[in-house]
Amino acid sequence: MLMLTHEARLSALREELKKRGLDGFVVPISDEHMSEYIGSYAQRLAWLTGFGGSVGSAVVLEHKAAMFVDGRYTVQVRDQVDGNLYDYCQIPKESIGAWIAANAGSGARIGYDPWLHTRGWADNVSQALAKIGAELVPVDANPVDAVWEDRPAPSDAAVMVHDDSNAGQSSAEKRELVADWLKSEGLDGAVIGALDSIAWLLNIRGSDVDRTPVTLSYVLAHADGTAELFIAPEKITPEVARHLGNAVTIRPRTEFESALQHLRDKKIAVDPGSGVAAIFQTLEDAGATVVAARDPALLPKAVKNPVEQQGHRDAQARDGVAVSKFLHWLTKTAPAGGVTELDAAAKLREFREQTGMLKDLSFDTISAAGPHAALPHYRVDEDSNIPIAPGSVYLVDSGGQYVDGTTDITRTVWIEPVEPSAEVKDRYTRVLKGHIAIALAVFPENTAGSQLDAFARQFLWQAGVDYAHGTGHGVGSFLAVHEGPQRIAKSGGGQAGTDEPLQAGMFLSNEPGYYKAGEFGIRIENLVLVEPREIPGAEGTYFGFETLTFVPIDRSMVDVGLLTREEIAWWNDYHAQVGKILLPQLTAPADAEVRAWVEEGCRPL
User: The Creatinase N-terminal domain covers which part of the protein (predicted)?
Assistant: First the structure.
């Protein structure tokens, strides 16, 4: 009999913990690869609590439980998770270790699944529990799985070859890069657990995880350029086997742990960010020397080759038409009322599908009307869905997965016929000024993203306001829409990647914003490419950004009086380029209205 309520599920988990002699258990949003987006089989936290965000954890004790989320989900967690069952805790202000130490007794045994947490996390929580004489205990099997009666099975979808014509580099060349690094470090091999790194290294893609074209697997890369791929055998087609060739040994995924146990006396690199605690422990127990080191595929994956760069431009040109068709539809339809957030998200997907090349969305569309636009990571569903009201702000953050590129774009538009307020125009224009400042930035070699972050915030700071998210994230090539190691964000606070030097070939988003709780939110996002910048007389190497996203930016909220001549020139140059890229694709008679809308949107300020 299936347990339908979250209260019943919580009770069942507590009974299971008693059977196992555990006084508590930690349930994260995570899989065995520390992925951002996870398959349905790994959605344990959503099943247990109802929480639908992408980051969070629950702690379940015998008589008390708590939900831990960051500031992005302060409102959402209260809407989705029963406050009678769980305390609400905000990280990093409140830590899981400190909460358990304050609420569990001396001698308590708190379970955790070592395949779902990093070694660093386990060490930190263990230290907090040791202060009260409690213990963090690794479990052999996840107790949530024991009570989740209708838990989905992991995807059995077949692997797909990512052709060299799109990858721009063969798998053999990529494996040789990793092998060279291993030899230079005196290492025998590296465990690669991040699914997008595996996909990049082997030039394969999959459909095991919504929004990210990866396949569930592990790789053990060796210093001679060979590799072992641990994957469910039924996922490998003859075409994929031929593509991988003799240098890649295909082994069942179930043999991964035992393979680690046979690495005695080997020096093996494991990334502490994507390698789970169980991998470290298994290797150490086997007598291997474990070296904590960054995933050797991470940086090469982030620096896109010329083929990937051109593929992305092609994908953006295609995607830009789809988004422009959507925005034309929205501005024509929404002022009459009756269009909901879900209607808009579905219509945008429909336009992308009309390209005939969409493989998936790159993330769940943020279709946010009015006060929902003030939630940076809002995700609409049947319960939260509201109409897009005339005389209000509408924010849409969306993207597509295409074989030649991954897109991510945000546009904020004003729904007529009422005019936007002076406050809305002021905030929108300050966000725009920050966006332009990043687009025009010129910076020397070895500049980190954190050093550019204030460029985007300065105009908001002048008005005494700010935004709580980063300004830019890395983007994959038909891979993860959020990709490291580079970021543009404030330094400190545990923000990984903020100190990573930006290199030519890296993709980043440029997305400053402003959010007034309960009223409206604004974000303007394009993707950019780090490129060399020639400066006469320059002393050293300098970089700037090539803008990659071309869709008209809403002008109805722009206060032109706040813009400098340079900013107006950027706007006009940008929109001239929008016209050059989009209008040649809008020549069919059926596109006449969209073409006119684009031409109007591209008029000089």
Answer: 9-141
| Cβ–Cβ < 8 Å for 493, 450 | no
Mean pLDDT of the chain: 95
pLDDT at site 491:
84
3-state secondary structure 41-59: HHCHHHHHHCCCCCCCEEE
**6-147: which CATH number, 3.40.470.10, 3.40.350.10, 3.40.50.1450, 3.30.300.20?**
3.40.350.10
- Among 71-75, 91-95, 518-522, name the one with the lowest average pLDDT: 71-75
Q: Is the pLDDT of residue 414 over 50?
A: yes
Which residues touch 298 (CB under 8 Å, ≥6 apart)? 194, 197, 271, 484, 485
Beta bridge mates, 402: 405
Q: Where are the alpha helices (DSSP H) in 462-589?
A: 565-582
Q: What are phi and psi of 496, to 5 degrees?
A: -65, 140
191, 260 in Cβ contact below 8 A? yes
Q: Where are the domains of the chain?
A: 6-147, 160-301, 303-601
Global confidence as pTM: 0.94
Gap between the Cα atoms of 559 and 567, Å rounded: 12
